[in-house]
Amino acid sequence: MKNILIVGIVIVNLALASYSIAIFKQYRSRLMGRGVLVFLTIGLIFDISATVCMIIGSGNFLTLHGVIGYSSLIGMIIDTGFSYRLLFKSGINSPVTPKFMKLSLFAYLYWVSAYITGATIVMLD
Questions:
Q1: Global pTM?
Q2: What residues contact 77, with CB distance under 8 A and at least 6 apart?
Q3: Is the pLDDT of residue 61 over 80?
């Protein structure tokens, strides 16, 4: 396995940890706190970095897993964008509506499904 792919795997695991902390903090508190935003942002940075590493390492931009991964990344970008929008509109520690929580959970669970798909592909390879 290429070193760049190994780096991508390590980074995507960091993205998983960061996203998980953010979503669980948000779910437990039902607030858009500073910690949620920090971990969402860090997760997004890790996710984008891992995606770049995977593209470089695989040499193939368009694959089924790639499309799933790109769309899950877009979902997390949208969720993070809406989180910042809520922050700017309502302030720090503003309540999260049930509708917003569903969007966040959907984006996160879709991202986790892409993560699991990628891990399965690596294990079967």
A1: 0.94
A2: 44
A3: no
